[in-house]
Amino acid sequence: MSAFVTWEPVLRLMLTGDERRPRGQVARVAGRIGQHGCSLAHRGGMSATARSAVEDLQRALARGRVQEVAFRAEVRPDGRTSLAVVWPSPVVQAPVGYADLGVLVLVEGSLPAPWLRRPDPASGAVPAPSADPALLERTLRERLPDAVGATREEIDAAEARLGVTLSEELKALYRVARVDWFDDFEGADLAGEAVGCELSGPADLRAVDAAERHGGWDIGAGRAIGAGPDAAVQPLAGSPGWIGFGSNGGDEYAIDLTPGPGGHYGQVILVGHEQSLGAELVADSLTDFVLGRLREEPSGRAAQLPGITAKVRSGGLGSVEEAAHPALEVLTIEVPDGGGAPFALAPVLGLPRLRTLTAAPGTLADPLEVTGLPALEFLAVGVREWRLLLDAGAVPRTLKAAAVTVRDEEHLPVVDVANEILALWDRPPIEQTLLEGDIGPVATDTRAMLGP
């Protein structure tokens, strides 16, 4: 991994046939190689030489028990090359794209604000008119005449462990069938068929944990959800009152003990495995759920309310002024086709909920204006913008995570800038290996390097 000659075929592959690069200028490439795959920006097939080089690098990673490395290279017209191999770091969350370094986690264990939100008190919530524990228990006993129910002590133990009082409907369910997938698989399967889902027993009940649903800052920082004043389900990632009792094989069914203003205590919600925020209302009560009286169009999913997120340019709004809103949490500024003048942040300065700012390199008129965002917890800007903030001692200390957005001419300085940011939070630096070599004049004949 530390020998330049090992990387030469990979670099040649990525450079060959790059028609967008003007002749006589420095070429810049970036990618990632892991034990079981790679992300390389190149067109066409891969030659046997390049494929062998990638496989050699993958074997080296396996020997060193390294999952993946990122790399960046600058190749001058005469072939002189500077290569940086960036090693995995516990303070960096891997990016979605191959070119970015990843997200710098400045505060260990931190999560974006939506995953930290607790449910509003639901002390006035009442069960739906359809909730009928007695009918539910009779129905299940008819469907499961030989089932063995849970004892009072088992139900009490589940409540004590969870720190909540279970709904009367859920207690009625378990009085009929205790469910044990280990010692009585057939009985548990029959109970699931009777209820309408893969059912958990009292000992396996759990609250939906918001932290478990968080997929990382790379995507999470840009997520925001809200709900109207009459929402049936609170817009949360999890709640101590969302008690998971079963699944459909992928998504989780939960009894909702902390409903929204328009919901009912004990309603059944579906926590989707492909969604990291919010849940859907599928039945007003467990009685309805068992009797098959489901909502034809599940509702309750947290909506993207106007004003919470805003994208300026690139198919979005035309100005920061249009994005300014008291509820604004996430602001993204992109460069449209054809470019344009940079933006001032003045219209959004002081907004109390603006926690995420992602601005493409060169789109901020004055990067130091970010100091006027009191709730900022995630910032993604380019190398130049970070350089200005660092030199001025103006990096917002409210940040929990950050990203250095790259553009073509900024590939190699990224790690140095990232390490300066990490040092402000006393986080360990990212390690990189710098290599120098010469691959000769950059090839322009695609036939020389691309295989079938």
Briefly summarize what is shown:
The chain has helices at 4-15, 48-63, 133-143, 152-162, 168-176, 185-195, 217-220, 286-290, 320-323, 383-391, 414-424; strands at residues 27-34, 37-40, 68-75, 80-86, 92-93, 103-105, 198-199, 206-208, 239-247, 252-256, 267-271, 280-283, 309-312, 330-333, 356-359, 378-382, 401-405, 432-438. By secondary structure, the chain is an alpha+beta fold.
Structure description:
This protein has helices at 4-15, 48-63, 133-143, 152-162, 168-176, 185-195, 217-220, 286-290, 320-323, 383-391, 414-424; strands at 27-34, 37-40, 68-75, 80-86, 92-93, 103-105, 198-199, 206-208, 239-247, 252-256, 267-271, 280-283, 309-312, 330-333, 356-359, 378-382, 401-405, 432-438. By secondary structure, it is of the alpha+beta class. The strands form three sheets. A seven-stranded mixed beta sheet has the order 5-6-17-16-15-14-13. Strands 7, 8, 9, 10, 11 and 12 form a six-stranded antiparallel beta sheet that branches. Helix 1 crosses helix 2, helix 3 (133-143) packs parallel to helix 5 (168-176) and helix 10 runs parallel beside helix 11 (414-424). The radius of gyration is 27 Å and the shape is globular. The two termini are 26 Å apart.
Give start-end ranges of low-pLDDT stretches. 443-452
N- and C-termini, Cα separation: 26 Å
Number of strands: 18
Q: Based on CA inertia axes, which overall geometry fits?
A: globular
Mean pLDDT: 87
User: What is the percentage of strand-forming residues?
Assistant: 15-25%
Helix content: 10-25%
Order of helices and strands: HEEHEEEEHHHHEEHEEEEHEHEEEHEHE
Strand order of the largest sheet: 5-6-17-16-15-14-13
